[in-house]
Specification:
Blueprint: H1 2-5, H2 14-25, H3 35-55, H4 57-65, H5 68-77, H6 85-98, H7 102-109, H8 113-118, H9 129-142, H10 146-149, E1 154-156, E2 159-162, H11 164-170, H12 178-194, H13 197-203, H14 210-230, H15 239-264, H16 268-290, H17 303-316, H18 320-331, H19 346-354, H20 358-365, H21 369-376, H22 386-390, H23 395-409, H24 416-422, H25 426-429, H26 435-445, H27 449-466, H28 471-488, H29 494-514, H30 523-538, H31 549-552, H32 565-592, E3 616-617, E4 623-630, E5 633-644, E6 647-655, E7 662-669, E8 676-677, E9 684-688, E10 692-693, E11 698-699, H33 711-714, E12 716-720, H34 724-753
Antiparallel strand pairs: 1-2, 3-7, 4-5, 4-12, 5-6, 6-7, 8-9, 9-12, 10-11
């Protein structure tokens, strides 16, 4: 009997659900005193409804019968500073996300329940309500389809007049918090994906359509800020400023991807509106700057930033219209100079020549193949438009303009005539084989940019390499040079060969000097690693390569805080290897016409003497000495430098207390020890230790000795010997073993370093 009275309640039963609903209905006001009770009731409702949607249809029938969503709306209205909104929106979001039944979703979206919750007057000042509200809107948008969309819009005479979910979400589109912006864009994309003709008409008609103009205007403001960062003075070109530059470019790229997501939906009406806004408010003003056709009284972007932005635009946004609209204007700067031909359009053309407006560009850019013939007949002989940057003494403008050409050339949607103007061979264009096409192509090929100006372009790029600029600039220049060689399939002139030979020999000499550096033992391994890395970089598609390099090579490459001399030496060696490998691969392409598949030699770095701390070995020819790892301890050890092949180690061996062997207590690479006798104490030998460990990219810790040793001890060992003669002998044996190791490394890579480009025939 007592067990029956105290039996547990089934929380997911229909009876208990009705009890919870009645409890919620009895609430007349929500304040700070009953807030927790109301929160518990809302949580229970959501848990039971979610369970019932999957396991018990009667629960959801009760949910509809009792109009529980109406109780949620009522709870919002009777709340008096109770902060009930956040948990209510949270539980509603959870319920909507977990509803699987289309019938359940359809019911929840009907009867204006969701719209009433969306349009409730919330106080977003302070607190954490906004994320819950946006999360709720996103949960609703994720459940939208063509059938449920109509339940959330208001229609009068077959015209959508209100769409609260969309309108309220867009109010937060300019919010400073990144996660809020991402959620709003996700909501809008969910809506665009399921929009029918009526909803699409609402979205593309003012005032809703003003959102797209705002997006483009906001993008342009970000571009202006980016331009300010690009043109800072050299004194302020710090690593922090570069980080700010990267953050700003990331924001711009995010916006471009959002536009591309909208265009990818395939809604013709929406795509037309977005494309027009992009072209009119963003693309063509930038192109006008590139063509030197801007009004000097207006604030505009610099050419360098403009070239970067157009490259990024073509990388991100797909579509024939965008690519060819940009291509036609870039490749035909004289579009604004068509005044020589007669006909009914001559006055219009002269007007364009005098005052090129965006609207006029839009009209002329949409022309047919007749446009190509008429424009081409009037191409000016002077270097205008993009060519003015290709011939610029400014290396950044040269690289940025060539990069833009390569991005345009690799665009799958590029018109075959435009591809011919760039200078792509017919086999790379994929043109239609009609007589008209052939005539048009033959008309433009003779004066194509790459065909006509390639000698000057090659010469400019090789001059950059020969000037030994910073490593990143050399790699990017090499990437552009390699792509142009592959595309154009042209040989260099004798002067260009000489320039490349000069540059190659400089890179070879720079690496040769590193054989006398403190990291010569890592040269073979680094060569092997950087060979693969260089191949990957050089073969990278222009559409996947970040054009940020055109903006940031003026910024200082600051070393990390607390960097050591050994790290600086390591970075110098790696940079020398990278530059040399780049020249090796370019040499193969220039002289042999193909990219090398491997280094052609075995650059293996085997450990020739596997001795580690704790290894037992005979003392043999070890030289006795003393060393102090701390002020309180002096230890008797034997110095044993050993080398085998390209491996070399210095071992400190302590005599075993019970056996006729020694135990290794410390191991250091031979390379970089630089043994020196103390000027005051001739029995002391100083050894320099490499603090940086390239395996982990950090400064080494010296194990048990690191806590008690200062920086000077960490970077150096001082060994004490019995007499001066023994000390000098120790220095000599270290130098001898190090020299043997260096000779092995030199022999291994001599086939690469020994062959000067002068031995090649052009």
């Amino acid at each position: 009997m007592w067990r029956y009275l105290w039996r547990s309640i089934d929380r997911f039963s229909l009876q208990y659900f009705k009890y919870i609903i009645n409890e919620l209905r009895d609430i007349r006001v929500v304040d700070e005193y009953n807030r927790e009770v109301v929160v518990d009731l809302l949580q229970s409702v959501v848990e039971i409804v979610t369970y019932g949607d999957r396991h018990d249809p009667s629960i959801f029938e009760c949910f509809m019968e009792y109009q529980v969503l109406a109780e949620f709306v009522r709870t919002l209205k009777i709340s008096r500073n109770s902060r009930i909104e956040a948990p209510l929106l949270q539980y509603l979001s959870i319920m909507i996300q977990n509803l699987n039944s289309e019938h359940a979703i359809y019911y929840c979206f009907s009867n204006e329940y969701i719209n009433n919750i969306i349009t409730h007057q919330y106080d977003f000042d302070g607190g954490d309500l906004m994320p819950y509200y946006i999360s709720f809107l996103r949960a609703v948008s994720c459940k939208l389809n063509r059938d449920t969309l109509c339940l959330l819009v208001k229609v009068q005479q077959d015209v959508v007049v209100s769409f609260p979910l969309y309108s309220e979400a867009l109010k937060f589109s300019h919010h400073g918090e990144k996660m809020i912006q991402i959620a709003v864009r996700a909501i809008s994309l969910n809506i665009y994906n399921v929009s029918d003709d009526m909803v699409c008409q609402f979205l593309t008609t003012p005032p809703a359509s003003e959102y797209f103009s705002y997006l483009v205007s906001s993008l342009r403001e970000k571009c202006l800020h980016l331009d300010d960062l690009v043109h800072v003075t050299k004194e302020t070109c710090t690593s922090d400023r570069k980080k700010e530059l990267i953050v700003e470019t990331d924001k711009i790229v995010d916006d471009l991807y959002y536009f591309n997501d909208i265009l990818s939906i395939g809604n013709s009406r929406l795509s037309r509106l977005v494309t027009d806004n992009l072209l009119t408010l963003f693309v063509f003003p930038i192109l006008l700057q590139i063509l030197h056709l801007t009004d000097d009284n207006e604030k505009h972007l610099s050419p360098l930033t403009s070239l970067y932005l157009v490259s990024r635009l073509l990388q991100v946004i797909d579509g024939t219209e965008m690519v060819n609209s940009v291509g036609r204007i870039i490749l035909y700067p004289n579009i604004v100079c068509i005044a020589s031909y007669s006909g009914p359009d001559s006055d219009r053309a002269e007007n364009i020549k005098r005052n090129c407006s965006v609207d006029q560009l839009l009209e002329y850019v949409s022309s047919t193949s007749e446009f190509f013939c008429r424009v081409y007949e009037n191409i000016p002989s002077e270097r205008a438009g993009l060519l003015s940057y290709i011939y610029s003494d400014n290396q950044s403008l040269l690289l940025a303009s060539l990069f833009l050409l390569l991005v345009l050339a690799e665009s799958a949607d590029l018109d075959y005539l435009l591809a011919s103007v760039i200078g792509l061979p017919p086999t790379k264009v994929g043109m239609h084989n009609t007589m008209a096409d052939t005539d048009l192509v033959s008309l433009v090929v003779g004066e194509s940019i790459l065909l006509k100006h390639m000698p000057q372009i090659f010469n400019a790029l090789l001059n950059i390499l020969a000037s030994q600029p910073p490593l990143p600039l050399q790699w990017h220049t090499g990437w552009i040079l390699r792509n142009l060689l592959v595309i154009q399939e042209k040989k260099l002139t004798h002067q260009d060969f000489d320039l490349f030979i000069t540059s190659f020999d400089q890179s070879r000499e720079r690496l040769w000097k590193e054989l006398d550096g403190s990291w010569f033992d890592y040269i073979p391994e680094t060569l092997q690693k950087e060979w693969r890395s260089c191949q990957t970089v050089l073969e990278e598609s222009s559409h996947s390569k970040d054009p940020l390099f055109t903006l940031d090579h003026y910024f200082k490459q600051d070393m990390p805080n607390g960097h050591s001399d050994s790290f600086i030496a390591w970075q110098r060696m790696v940079d020398a290897v990278k530059v040399f490998v780049l020249h090796l691969q370019l040499r193969s392409l220039i002289f042999e016409g193909c990219s090398p598949e491997s280094t052609t030699i075995n650059l293996t770095t085997e450990d020739g003497f596997p001795a580690n701390v704790g290894t037992e070995l005979p003392l043999g020819s070890g030289i006795p000495c003393k060393i102090s790892f701390s002020k309180a301890e002096m230890r008797d050890v034997h110095l044993l430098p050993v080398s085998k092949g390209i491996s070399g180690k210095l071992l400190l061996v302590e005599k075993h207390p019970h056996r006729d062997l020694g135990v290794v207590i410390a191991v250091e690479p031979l390379a970089g020890l630089n043994p020196k006798l103390d000027e005051i104490h001739p029995t002391w030998l100083h050894l320099r230790l490499r603090e940086f460990d390239p395996r982990y990219g950090a400064v080494k810790t010296r194990g048990q000795h690191s806590r008690s040793s200062n920086r000077a001890v960490e970077g150096r060992w001082t060994l004490g010997f019995l007499n001066t003669k023994t000390c000098e002998a120790a220095r000599s044996v270290i130098a001898r073993e190090s020299s043997k190791q260096r000779s092995s490394v030199e022999r291994l890579i001599t086939s690469l370093l020994g062959n000067s480009s002068n031995n090649q025939h052009y």
